[in-house]
Every structure is written in structure tokens, then in C-alpha cells.
Amino acid sequence: MVYTPTKPAEKKVSKLEGIKERSQFLREPVATELKEDTTHFTEAGIQILKFHGSYQQYNRDEVVRGQEKPYSMMLRLRNPGGYISPELYLTLDDISDKYGNHTLRATTRQAFQLHGILKKNLKATLADIIRSMGSTLGACGDLSRNVMAPPAPYKNKPEYVLARQYATNIADLLTPQTPAYYEIWLDGEKAVTTEEDPAVVAARQGQGGQVEGSPHPVEPIYGVQYMPRKFKCAVTVPGDNSVDAYTQDITLVVITDANGELEGFNVIAGGGMGRTHNKEETFARTGDHIGYVDKDDVYDLVKAIVFTQRDFGERYNRRVSRMKYLIHRWGLPKFIEEVEKRFGKKIDGFRPLPEWKYEDYLGWHEQGDGKLFVGVHVRNGRVHNEGKLRNKLALREIVEKFNVSMRVTPSQNVVFCDVSPEDKAAIQEILDRNGITEHSKVDSLERYAMACPALPTCGLAVTESERIIPSMLGRIRKLLNKVGLKNETFVTRMTGCPNGCARPYMAELGFVGQAPKSYQLWLGGSPNQTRLARPYMDRLHEDNLEKELEPLFACFKQNRNEGESFGDFCDRYTFEALRTFTETYEPIKAVGSGRRRNRVGVSDELFTKLKAKAKADGTSMADVLEAVIGDRLD
User: Fold this and answer.
1) Could you confirm whether 351 is annotated as catalytic?
2) What is the pLDDT of residues 151-206, one digit of tens each?
3) Mind listing the pLDDT tens digit for each residue in 192-204?
4) CB 502 within 8 A of CB 495
């Protein structure tokens, strides 16, 4: 049968819906305003610019009263599965110095961001990226964002090869087809792009499947108004939850037979992190198990889900426009029923999966084809040179010398792929020389922590995140040591606002910016990122971190089950019991507290090194010294 979607009754829509509809498929007013001698875009221009992968921002640290805001643009790449070619990486590195703020930022969706691009340099910047086989189209805006996949470049594990392949294919399927992108940034010049899978091309045009309707001649998937809100997808393999599978609008899980041949995909749908403080109608949500789809039908099912959200998603109140709210309003049975109408058949049952594990792939690994890959820790995802940490220099030198590609990871790190074994020592030497800590020596709290950029550039941030999390983690580590949990670790995530870019609502310990220097505290997420945390406390001021967290850690130490993680403990023990314990808790008196202060003399050279290390780590010299000496004495 051929199913033509039923057009919903006319509803009131937001102002942005009109801006999208009048944009001539994402051309205006960007094309016109780009030619104007101004430092910034209008509100309508800002909204359409997002679809081209750019946000207009200003650096709040540089605001001068009475003067125009220091406007600049943030550019975000669209690179499925985190793949970055050597040529593209070198281009990004060059651009960051020529036009940007001399840094690159790895994101939690496996892309790079560039900050500090002036409006007058935006066209040249984008042209350079596109000519280096990169793209920013669809990295932001109301459409499918960067499609995620496990970053491990295994060649001997068919399911990983398939996950990478289908992440690219789903990204191609859901990429906007408007020619406006190349018209604006390349003056209509046709860019060299990789060839799309013929099955993807056919599926986009409504051929070879049950989902037909009347595809729009310009935008066969999206039509004139695109999606009601952002739409996030991932493809992964059974057991590998590096992509935070339950936080996506759609996650496909590769299912293979005993010989590694693709059979189909399990489908998870309806996840999403964004919410708004004090708006109970908004909430974080984990995805539901929708079912299983055969490999030949996967594109049609993805389209059916996208079309259901496109046609029925909320277009007036953007706070509740994500697909998770549609499923919440309808209930899962009605949602599946509507998807099946567009799909043209019943969706099969969800197939059993092994337990999920959160992976980060740091360190050296066999790739499966005689070559190696190495995961490199990038603190908070920021690629820059500061003091002895020169990861920007290191990454460029490795790419230039060895011509290796990389994959950005969902945990804001990078993986170098296809490394010849004879080059391992030389690459490790470059990493060591530039101050990049070997993964086994990175504090586990830092290793499993994530933070969004927040201040000073993000316009939504109400407080710090990236800049403060190093010192916060240092204080948390000190607290754990104090209560006798020296080697304890858990997943910590921080954001400067409630939008959830660093996925804090899945963390065992989550900090969500609520006011200047204050955070909403979330507890109880699982170590493998399959259970939502819950809000435990409002407006935790950063100055009260020790006061509020010490009782929680002490209670954990006294009452945990053997091998139980902090997140699992908080979920089992109940928040009521945690609060009861906290009310009667007497803080442990710090060793050496009181009038006596022990002193140790050090050389001027060592003092300088301690000072630099403390500044780089965002902590005190005493904490650095205690950590180093403590490790040596244990």
C-alpha cells in the first residue's frame, strides 16, 4: 500500500516557524545580511544561520558598558561518527588561528567547534571548510544534527564497520537538500563531496519503500518548515554505549548474524536531555525500545519516525517541541501506531541485547587489520596550547607527520586511526613532549567527566562549566580522600544551563547551572548511562560544595553494597534516606586542622613548577603537592 500522511489540523505556530517558511529554503536573510557591513546578524538571520552550522555569540568577558557587544560566530562541523580527515583537521587548525580564538573544541556529539569567527570572515571560513571536504550544514537548527557512532575504528569487528557506515548513511538521508548552502558560501560553486549510497538517494525520494506521500521537490524529507526542533540520531553496536544511546531521538543498534552479516537494527526512540528550570512541563527523558527493523527497511522506518515528529511535533511552544514530548503526550502505543501507518507495516519486537557499557577508548588498541588506534585525552574537549599542555601543537604534528585521520569521541576526546605499529613510539613521544597525560595517569574523575563550554561565549549559560570543572573535580577528589574513598570514581557532568549539552541528567553526579555560581545537583544516574539521574538539591553554591557533598560521600562509604557505584547507591538508598543522614552528619575534622600548620620547604624551581601545575589544573599548590607525594608514599 501507499500511505499519504494526514495533514494535522492547523495550529498556532511560533514566530520562528514563519522565519523558516519565508527563508526560501535557508537562503534569507542570511544571504543578504552577509553582504552588509555590520558586525552581526538580525534575529531572523541568527535563526536561519543556525541551519548552516553557526551560532552568533559574544564574549561576555569582553563586554564594555556603552559599547557594542563583541560579536563573533561559533561554527560547528557536521561529521558523522566523528570522522575528520587529515586535510580537514589541518584546515580547522589553520582557521582557528587565522580567524578564530586559537582553539578548537571537541563536542559531546563528536564534532569540532570553532569560536571567535567575525562576521566579515565567516564566508571565507566556511569556504575553506567546504573545500576541505568538511561541512557545517545541519550541525545546528531544526533538523537532524550530527549522527553519532562508536569512535573505535575496528576493522575486524563487522558490527563496528556497519555502525560507522550507517551513521554516514542516516546523516546523508537526513541532510537538507537545499542548494542555498553552496550558493551562499561558495557562490554557487559545486563542492566535491563523497558519493552517497544509491539506497539512501532512493529512500530520500520516496522510492523503494512504503513511505511515499508527496515529497517536496526541494526538501523531500523536511518540506518548507523543516522539523519542529532539533533531532538527534546515533548508530551503535550491542553493548557499546559510548554514544549515550538512550539520550537520542533515534538510536539504531546493529544486529548481525553469527557470521557478522547485517540482519537489521534494534530501534530506540524518544530520548532527550533539554529542559527548563521551574517549568515542570519540560524534562529529561530516556528513549523507549520501539522494536526491530530489517536492514532493507531501515531507511523507511527512520523516515516514518521523522515524518511523525515533523507532522505532529509541537510548533508553537518550543520548550516542548522535541519528539520526547510527543511520545509523552500520546503514549508509546499511539506513537508506534502512527509510525507504523507511515512505515506501511508492523514493527517487529525488540531483540535481546547484552548489558551496556560506557566506553571511551583511551590509550593504544589493536585495530584488527595490523594497524593501531590511540585514544587521546583532551581535557574538557579544548584543543589549545597553555603552559606545558600543548595538545593543539601535538595533534597538528601527528596529523602532519603521519597523515592519520581521527575520530572525535562522544566524551570530547580524539582517536587517531590507522596508525602503523612502527609509528607508535614516535606518536607517543609527541604526546609526552607536549604534556598530554597518558590515559592511565589521568585522574578517573577527570577521565569520566564532561562539561559544556558555557561562559564566556554561550549565550544560554547562567554560570561557569568548562572553566570551573577542573577545580571542582579537584575539590571532589579531596573530599573523597577525606572520607576514605581515595580511589573512588564516578561519572560527573556539568553544564552552565539546563539545556543538557553535556548530558548531565545521565550522570552519577550532575551539576546543572541554575544561577550565577550555583547549580542544581542531580544524583543517581548509572555508570553505563542507561538510567536518568534525579534532582536532589537546588541552588548549590560553588562555595558550599564540600559542606553539601561530604555527607553524601560519607553515607555512600558507610552504606554501599560491595562493588556498588555511587550512582547506583544513590538510586537504591533513596534521597529521603540521604537527607536524613545529612541532617545528623558531623563533618570529619581535617588532619592538621587547627592552629598548627605543617610546612615543607621547596626549591624556587619546584615552587614555580607547582604554581604552574596548580594553575593548569585549577586547584591549589597544596592539593598538587599532596597528590604527588601521597601517590609516591602509598
Assistant:
1) no
2) 999 999 999 999 999 999 999 999 999 999 999 999 988 776 778 999 999 999 88
3) 677 899 999 999 9
4) yes
Mark whether 609 is an active-site residue. no
Catalytic residue among 230, 382, 392, 407: 230
> pTM here?
0.91
pLDDT tens-place string over residues 412-422 = 999 999 999 99
The yes-or-no answer on residue 615 being catalytic is no
From 140, 497, 555, 570, the catalytic residue: 497
The verdict on whether 232 is a catalytic residue reads yes
Please identify which of the residues 417, 458, 555, 570 carries the catalytic annotation. Answer: 458
Of these residues, 140, 233, 417, 501, which one is catalytic?
A: 501
C-alpha cell at 404: 592519520
Tell me if residue 390 is catalytic. Answer: no
Q: Reply yes or no on whether 611 is catalytic.
A: no
Burial class (CB in 10 A: 0-12, 13-18, 19+), 546: middle
Superfamily of domain 15-343: Sulfite Reductase Hemoprotein, domain 1 (3.30.413.10)
- Spot the catalytic one: 50, 229, 232, 493: 232
How is domain 445-588 classified at the architecture level of CATH?
2-Layer Sandwich (3.30)
Q: Is 275 a catalytic residue?
A: no
3: DSSP letter: B
417 is catalytic: no
Q: What fold is seen in the domain 363-440?
A: Sulfite Reductase Hemoprotein; domain 2 (3.90.480)
Q: pLDDT by residue (tens digit) across 416-452? A: 999 999 999 999 999 999 999 999 999 999 999 999 9
Residues 6+ apart with CB under 8 A from 151: 81, 82, 110, 242, 361, 375, 407, 408, 409, 410, 415
